[in-house]
Amino acid sequence: MQTLNVELAERSYPIHIGEDLLSQPDLILPHLKRKQVAVVTNTTVGPLYLDKLCNPLRDRGVSVIPIVLPDGEQYKNAEVLGKIYDALLENRCERHTTLIALGGGVIGDMTGYAAATFLRGVPFIQVPTTLLSQVDSSVGGKTGINHPLGKNMIGAFWQPKLVLADTTTLNTLPDRELSAGIAEIIKYGLIRDIEFFNWLEANMTKLMARDPAALAYAIRRSCENKAEVVAADERESGERALLNLGHTFGHAIEAGMGYGVWLHGEGVAAGTLLAADLSRRMGWLTDTDVERIAAIHRAANLPTVAPSLGTAAYLELMGLDKKVQDGKIRLILLQAIGKAVFTADYAPHLLHETLQTTDA
Ligand SMILES: NC(=O)c1ccc[n+]([C@@H]2O[C@H](COP(=O)([O-])OP(=O)(O)OC[C@H]3O[C@@H](n4cnc5c(N)ncnc54)[C@H](O)[C@@H]3O)[C@@H](O)[C@H]2O)c1
Ligand SMILES: O=C(O)C(=O)C[C@@H](O)[C@H](O)[C@H](O)COP(=O)(O)O
Ligand SMILES: [Zn+2]
C-alpha cells in the first residue's frame, strides 16, 4: 500500500492506494467519530463490493446503513440526492455518522454533497472504485450534482476524511470506463507534468492491458499531481482551474448529448482536443503537438472528435460554465505539452473556428 497526503492544514487527509484495501477495517476505523456509517453505492457496485467493505466493519462493531442508488450520470440530480437524505433521516443519523461513498465519481460527488449539506455538514470517506474516481474525483473535495442546464451546477467544496483506493476493484471495471479514467490521467501530463506525459506515451499499451504496476504508478502520479494543485488552491481561485482542461467543452458535450450518452472522460478527451486545436490557432501548439495529443488519446481508445452539436449550441452550453466571468468564457489552453494557462485572453473568432470543426 502507498499513502499520499492532501495537505490542507486541519482538513488534511491521507490517500491510501493498494490492493485489497476494502476488507481492511483498520484503515477506516481511526477516521470514524462513532461506530456508525452510511455507505452510499449503486445497483452495479453494491452487489460487487458492498459486503466486502461492510462485513469486516460490522465484525468490528460498526453499525452500517447501506444506501443503494440507481446507476448512471442521469441520476446525479436533486431527486436522487433526496433519497440519500431520506435514508439518513429514516435511520436517525447524527452529526457523528460518517458517510462512505463506494463507487465511481457519480456516487462520490453525490455522497460528498450529501455529507456537506446533511445537518450542515457530516464527515465522509471516499472509496473510489473506477479508475477515474481513483485518479481524480475522490481527491480534492469538489462535490455536487448536475442541473438539466449544466454539469455540477449545484455543489460545495467538502473534503473527505480519507480516500481508500482499492486497485483490485478495477478488475471488474468495463474497458470503456477504464479508457474514460485514462482521459483524466493524460490531463495531468498535459497541464503540468511533461515527464508523466512522456511516460504515458511509452506505457499506454501496458495501461490498456491493465498491467498492475503501470496502473499503480499512473494512479499514484495522478494523485500526487492533484494533491499538489488542491493544496495550493483548494477553492479554485487560480491554479486549480487548470484541472478543468477540456472540461468547458466536455461538460457542454455531456449536457448537450444528454447525461450518460458520452461518459465524462470521453467528453474531457474530445474537449481536450478542441482546447488543443484552439491553442494551435493561438500559435502556441504546433501541428506536431496536436497530433501527439490526438495520438495518445487514440491509443487509449478515447474519442478525439467532438459531436456536432452546432457552434451556437456549444457557445450556449459553454456560457453556463462555472468559470465564466463578466459573461466571458474562460478556458484552459496549452502553451506547450506540460504547460497550461487559464485565460480569457483568446480571440473569439478563433474559438468559433475551433467549434466549427465539429460541424459535420
Ligand atoms: N469531484 C471531482 O473532482 C470530479 C472529477 C472528475 C469527475 N467527476 C465526476 O465523476 C463522474 C464520473 O465518474 P466515473 O467515471 O467514475 O463514472 P461513474 O461513477 O458513473 O462510474 C462509471 C460506471 O462504472 C460502474 N462501476 C464503478 N466501479 C465499478 C467497478 N469496480 N466494477 C464495475 N463497474 C463499476 C458504475 O456503476 C458506472 O456504471 C462525473 O459525474 C464527473 O462529473 C468529479
Ligand atoms: O478537481 C477539480 O478541480 C477538477 O476540475 C477535476 C475535474 O476533472 C472534474 O471533472 C470536476 O468535477 C470539474 O469541476 P467543475 O468545477 O468544472 O464542475
Ligand atoms: Zn473531470
CATH class of the largest domain: Mainly Alpha
CATH topology tier name of the largest domain: Dehydroquinate synthase-like, alpha domain
Largest sheet: 7 strands, mixed
Average pLDDT rating: 98
Strand order of the largest sheet: 1-2-9-6-5-3-4
Protein name: 3-dehydroquinate synthase
Binding site for Zn(2+): 184, 247, 264
Binding site for NAD(+): 71-76, 105-109, 129-130, 142, 151, 169-172
Family: Belongs to the sugar phosphate cyclases superfamily. Dehydroquinate synthase family.
Helix and strand topology:
Elements: E1 2-6, E2 13-18, H1 25-28, E3 36-42, H2 45-59, E4 63-69, H3 78-90, E5 98-103, H4 105-117, E6 124-128, H5 131-137, E7 142-147, E8 150-157, E9 162-166, H6 175-192, H7 194-208, H8 212-232, H9 247-257, H10 264-281, H11 287-299, H12 311-318, E10 331-336, E11 339-343, H13 348-356
Parallel strand pairs: 2-9, 3-4, 3-5, 5-6, 6-9
Antiparallel strand pairs: 1-2, 7-8, 10-11
Helix pairs in contact: 5-6, 5-8, 6-7, 6-8, 6-10, 7-8, 9-10, 9-12, 10-11, 10-13
Nicotinamide-adenine-dinucleotide binds next to helix 2, helix 4, helix 5, strand 8 and helix 6.
Organism: Novimethylophilus kurashikiensis
Pathway: Metabolic intermediate biosynthesis; chorismate biosynthesis; chorismate from D-erythrose 4-phosphate and phosphoenolpyruvate: step 2/7
GO molecular function: 3-dehydroquinate synthase activity; metal ion binding; nucleotide binding
